[in-house]
C-alpha cells in the first residue's frame, strides 16, 4: 500500500527478506536498523503522534475561530484561516485513516478503507490540502512583505484585495495538478499466497503504464513547485521581510506622525512580526519532512523494501509527527506576539463584557504605574 508518511507511492509488499553480506561496512552498521529497533522507535513515536494530533486539532480550530471574528478580519487573517483549514483537513483525514486501519484492518484490508486512504487521505489531504497550504502561507508572506515596503499602497495590492479568490485559485490549481494521481492506479482484492488472506492491493492502470513518463513528470513538477519551491520562497520572503522591517523602522524613526497613524503603524508591524514568527515555526517543523522526501527519492536504497528501508520508516514517522505539530504550534506564536489575538481570545472565552472590564483594569494599572 501507499506509505502514509511520504509523498512516494510503492507497490504492496507482503514480506521483506534482506540478505546481507557477512562483512558490513561502517556506513551499513550505522544505517542498518533492526526490526527490534524499529519497534522500539514505534513505541516512542506512536504516543507522541497521538499527543501532537490531540494538540494540533483543537489549536488549529482555535486559530480559525479567532481569525474569523470581526475584529480580526483582514487579508492576512484570511490566509491564516485557509492555511489552518488545509492543515486541519490533512491531520484529521490522516488520523481517521490511522485509527481505521489500526482498529479494523489488523488481519485484512477492507476495500472501503483502501478507497478512503487513497482518495481522501492521500489525494485530498496529503497532496491537495497540504501542498496547497504551503502556497497559501507563501502568499501571506508576500502580502506582508508588500505591506512593509509600500504601506500606503497595500490596500490596492491584489493579494490584499482578493484573498478569498487567491485561496480558492490555489486549492483549485492544486486539485487539478494532482488529478494524475487518481488515474495512476486502481484497487483490487487479491489473496496473499503466503497466508491466504484477502487484501486490497494497488495495481497500475494500463493508461498510466502507457504514459508513465508524462504522469511521473507531472507528479514531479507538482512536488517541486508546490512543496519545495513554495517552502524556499517562504524562507526568502521571511528574510526579506526582516530586512524591510529594519529599513522601515529606521526611515520612520524621525518622522512626526499623529497618534492614530502611529497606532496603525504599530498594529501593522505587530501583525507582520506575528506572521513572521508563525511562518518561521511552520518552516522549522515542515522542512525535515521535505528533506526526507527528497532524500528518499534521490537514494533508492532508503525506499520501502530496499536495503535501508527500516531507517526510511523511522525517519518517515518522525518527520510526519513534526508536520502534525506544525499544524497547531503557530497558535502559541499568535498568542505570544499579538495583543489583538490575545484580546479576541479573551472575548471568546470570557465574553465581551468581562473582557472589557479586564481590559479597563489593565489600562488603570498601567496608568498607575506610569
TrEMBL record:
| Record keyword Membrane present | yes
| Pfam families on file | 7tm_1 (PF00001)
Where in the numbering of this chain does the G-protein coupled receptors family 1 profile domain appear?
Answer: 58-334
Cited PROSITE patterns: G_PROTEIN_RECEP_F1_2
UniProt keyword Coiled coil present: no
Q: What is its main location?
A: membrane
Q: Where in the cell is it found?
A: Membrane
User: Which keywords label this protein?
Assistant: Membrane, Transmembrane, Transmembrane helix
Q: Which residues cross the membrane?
A: 48-67, 79-100, 120-142, 163-183, 226-245, 271-291, 311-337
Q: Which domain of life is it from?
A: Eukaryota
Record-linked InterPro entries: GPCR-Ligand_Int, GPCR_Rhodpsn, GPCR_Rhodpsn_7TM
Q: What Gene Ontology cellular-component terms does the record carry? A: membrane
Instruction: Give the protein name, as stated in the record.
Output: G-protein coupled receptors family 1 profile domain-containing protein
